[in-house]
Amino acid sequence: MDYFINHLIKGIFLRRYKRFFVDFLIQQNIHTAHCPNTGSMSSCLIQNSEVLVSKIQNPKRKLHYTLEFIKPKEWVLVNTLRTNALFESFLNKQKEFLYQFYIKEPKLPLFRPDFLLFNENHIPFLNSMEISLNKKKFINNIYDYSKPLLIEIKNVSYYIESEDCLVFPDAKTKRGSKHIQNLIFYLQKGFDCMICFVLSRSDGTYFRPFKEIDFEFSNKLYEFYNIGGKIYTLRILIDLRKNQNNNLEDITVNIKFSEFKKILL
Fold this sequence. Notes:
The protein is an alpha+beta fold. It has two domains: about 1-75, CATH 2.40.50.580; about 80-240, 3-Layer(aba) Sandwich (Trna Endonuclease, Chain: A, domain 1), CATH 3.40.1350.60. It is about 15% helix and about 40% strand. The chain is built from four helices and 16 strands. It has a five-stranded mixed barrel with strand order 1-2-3-5-4. Strands 11-12-14 form a three-stranded mixed β-sheet. The longest helix has 14 residues, at about 175-185.
């Protein structure tokens, strides 16, 4: 199960400022990239680390580069806008989630979760909740779940070296706590609900919530799990392939998926 990101350019990280701006070097020239990640990224942003950026050919866009990966020790995916696409790719190739269909960001009365998975026999129930199924996509013919499943995706990039663990969140997230509260509501309405933590780096021997940063989020996660919510961790493994393009390294990133079950709650 592979996912490819093509035509990336390698540079050297200099600094991040105003949250969304990153300066980096390419062949001794300083450029500025957009940083889509709103977290602190403090375990990733090590000066002089290698970065991979994508270049957008759009004259109307103010910043032509987007920060995609950084390498403090191991390569880390930091463009969180790619996380849902990665999970969708995994969903279409795996045989673990035995559902017939899925919808991205379905419109529910309280919020829009990242994914809804369901079978044909769930459709009357979903119609009764006034959930539009017009954009459903097919997964497979094998299905084996009695309830539709709502999934929230979280990108994990923060690494604690002293514990050799990955944690989430890396900054306080009232939005994340609200997402869990909404999932708890829909658990009580007859859905299965899951939070999938996508571990976007290869280091770390286990995952845990970062209660030292956001105690409220951690408590909500415990509450969610204790009443039947599901927690799933999916690790991505990053491999680079180099080509030459106008004297710049043209990089293709090959991403593989690996389930990761060492969770400490």
